[in-house]
Amino acid sequence: MAIINSLNRRRVIPNWRDFKSTLENGELKCQLDKSFKIPNSDRLLQERIDDFLNSSSIGTAADLVSVAYVLEKYENPDVKKALDYIEENKKSASQSLKDLGEKFRSQKFVDQDKQIIQDKPISPEENYILNIRTKIGQIKKYLRLYPINPIAWVEISRLYSMLGQKTQSEKAMKIALTLDPNNRFIIRSAVRLFIHNDKADEAYYYIRKTESLKFDPWLLSTEIATSCILERRPKFVKESVSLIDSGNFSNFSITELSSSLGTLEFYEGSSKKSKGFFRKSLLAPNDNSLAQVEWISKEDRSLQFNTDKITIKNPQEAYAIKSFEDCNWNRALHYSESWLNDIPFSTRPVLIGSFVAETFLDDNEKAMQLCKRGLIANPNDIIVQNNLICSYAQANMLDDAVQLLERIKPEIPDLSDENKIVLQATTGLILFRLGEYEKGRELYMKAIENAKNGKFEYLKNMAHLHLTREEINAKTDQIESAITKTEKEILNSTDSDVKELFKIIKKKYESEKNK
Amino acid sequence: MEIVTAAHSLRGQILNEKWKVTKRIDSYPGATGGFFSVCYEVQNLETKQIAFLKALNFEAFFQLFPGRSIIEIIHEQTQAYKYERDILLLCKSKRLSKVSTILDEGELYLSNFTIPNVPFLIFELAEMDVRNKLNFAANLDNAWKLQSLHDIAVGLRQLHSAKITHQDLKPSNVLLYHDSTISKIGDLGRSLCESIQAPHDNGAFTGDFRYAPPELLYGYYLEDASIRKYATDCYLFGSLLVFYFIGLNMTSLLAKNINKDFKWSKWHGAYTDVQSYVLEAFNASLTEFKSQIENETLQEELGRIVEYLCFPIPEKRGHPRSIKLRGSQYNLERFITRLDYLSKKLKYKLL
User: Touching check for B253 and chain A: CB below 8 Å?
Assistant: First the structure.
């Protein structure tokens, strides 16, 4: 039985993208919109203009243009004369000088294209692993030249995590943390990495060590989310609330913090308070806070927010969750794929995408493709492997399915109860496909029983649905009773996918019956 | 119409029985305090040496300066003049060969004027400042550039050994002499000295923000000013080296390579919070700088020198071995040796 994921509670853990994308998202901006202006800049510029006009040479022109650039005096006509002079004497000009001249001419002062180590996201298409390895090679070379650049260490850590190389990834991240333990980008990336690697306590250690924690809403939000994962009371709730109320920060700067506080209140049972925080988080949301609102809306139908008109950068996760809730499966698959491209080490887009592809769209090829990509970054993830087994089984690649199931069998005793139930149902599926209906049914029933005992309502419903589907596929004599039982069992379910899947199964049953 | 003052009437005068004022000139490489001073060319009566004279124009103090009191201006300018004179005399007494220093100084009395006193300083006459000599085409004049930079590094070390930090080293303050074979540091007007109190010393940066090291642009000052000013000189010299080769100084190169959100004109947080991004831009700047030097050995050597001299975290600036050893981490000795070695190698075409 393919399954979405084992995430019980979504927390506002930072998303970890490459440096360029994080910059573009605006998460690294300074909170306060004040700036330093060089005093007497007009007079200072005039001095260099006089020098150039009194004695025009490539040197005085270069000096004037350099100074104008530092002073941000882009429009001065005398600076333009110096630029023309450089253009006329370009044989004596360096490439940097010519580039700067181009920046002045095209008025493109704000874009930045040289600084970023990782200039393009890695394409998920062909040679995916090779492309990541090439990128790692490039950054290694860069780090040989600039070994104390912490941003480069974070970038290489992320690439290692995309290949599932946890040790190398953590090692690189720890170097970055040693070089700059207070940088927002580094801390948030590190927290995400350690939580991803099931080391929330280590994530918490680094976030608590940060000097600017109490003053930085992006870090406070991370601290709250990490504390909650560790089931500890966050240390700075009061400070966080006053920071939000202070009015010193832009709505965008406090979006994740509001969302974290909203989530905290939500899980502590204060719906009213949490609603207020979520509303605040939606004033200028980012991908994470919007996804959180979509998640919470799914968790509690009484908490609904109008997010239709919201446009943000990287909305993939939020849109995938929303499309899933709306039972728009093609859209859900599309956004899961782009979410995976955005956060390639995450298993959640893999699970949602493969579940939707296999369960609702009958696209086993796509489901397999997603699972295989997910296994690059998370080679030991049991649920991704489970979904791949299911896709193999659905595609009648039973040898592959059995082989993979055999491989993970030794791990089953150590799994959580939920995962054991999922694998029981999956084994049932394979047995059905192998024609051993009795044994298959028995395992499905065991899974249902265990889910009931463990109060895993969603798993119980899913197991019923999958069993019914298999009964129909196998054209057994148990179809009628399975349909009736499933209909009764899922009656009170609020999960849209459960209801939708039942509709599909029932339709199939009716069409089979009419044949 | 120009006001005729004592300072404007020096042509033909004999100063200190040694110098004849031959002609008035508009400006002079490396000269400061333009509004309050008048410049002349002078000739030594015995040796016929041509020199440059800067006369302090007291009457300019009485022109209108909205919002500023005359007392304040007179105090500021006389103090500035006195400081420059004293510091130049100190340099002269220490025989700093790579610092443009004064040949003579004094005060002339012209009785026909309301304010008859004209204090003056006489400097060696430079041919030009280095900007008029430089060419930024790749691989051109590299031997000369390194020799000139070596001279400037020596000049800076001479100043440091006299407990003076320049604080305002920039292309316009590099003066060329003797067919451009000798380069010297000019304009000590913004310098700081341990033995002479500078009137402009308010504990902050006294130099020119257009060329300032990044930490100062972000408002980060090393607590110990006696260390900070050497760190600043170190950066300014590295930045000058960059200018010699590509026509942009390190500050403008950083401005070019840093993301707009992290630029000093946008960032108001602590320098420690933006440091890693500045470092990232610095590395990009170094790569850009090195890419324009064709000779591979020179590319590596100069890249390293610039990296050590301009490192954006002042606590880590300087030669790594100087940082580890006792003494000042901003000591320029190792850079001087390297520049000397490289310039000689290039001169004899061994590189």
Answer: yes
Q: Taking Cα atoms as reference points, which of A474, A451, A468, A458 lies closest to residue A502?
A: A468
- Closest Cα to residue A121, out of A148, A158, A174? A158
What is the Cα–Cα distance from A341 to A406, expressed in whole angstroms? 30
Q: Do A63 and B283 touch (CB under 8 A)?
A: no
Distance from the Cα of A145 to chain B's closest Cα (Å) equals 9
Instruction: Please state the domain extents for chain A.
Output: 19-120, 415-515
For A265-307, write each residue's pLDDT tens digit: 998 888 889 999 999 999 999 999 999 998 898 888 788 888 8
**Taking CA B194 as the corner, what is the angle to CA B190 and CA B195, rounded to the nearest 5 degrees?**
105
Judge if pTM exceeds 0.90: no
Task: Write out the two tokens for B94.
Answer: 């220490």
Angle at alpha carbon of residue A12, lines to A176 and A295, rounded to 5°: 145
What is the C-alpha separation between A90 and A100, in angstroms, rounded? 12
3-state DSSP assignment of residue A423: helix
> What residues in A contact B126, CB-CB < 8 Å?
none
ipTM of the complex: 0.92
B 113-142 → A contacts, CB under 8 A: 128, 130-138, 140
- Is A46 in the B-facing interface, judged by CB distances under 8 Å? no
State residue B349's pLDDT score: 87
User: For residues A317 and B347, what is the distance between their CA atoms, to the nearest angstrom?
Assistant: 62
The 3 state secondary structure assigned to B50-81 is EEEEEEECHHHHHCCCCCCCHHHHHHHHHHHH
- Read off the pLDDT of residues B313-331 as tens digits, 9 standing for 90 and up: 999 999 999 888 888 899 9
Enumerate the residues of chain A whose CB falls inside 8 A of the CB of residue B291. 95
Nearest-angstrom CA–CA distance, B257 and B283: 9
Q: Which residue of B has its CA nearest to A152?
A: B280
* Cβ atoms of residues A200 and A229 within 8 Å: yes
Question: Cβ of A97 and B136 within 8 Å?
Answer: yes
For residue B171, the one-letter residue type is P
What does the alpha-carbon distance between residue B240 and residue B131 come to, in Å, rounded to a whole number?
11
Element (H, E) at B15: strand B14-15
The verdict on a CB contact (< 8 Å) between B261 and A26 is yes
DSSP state of A310: -
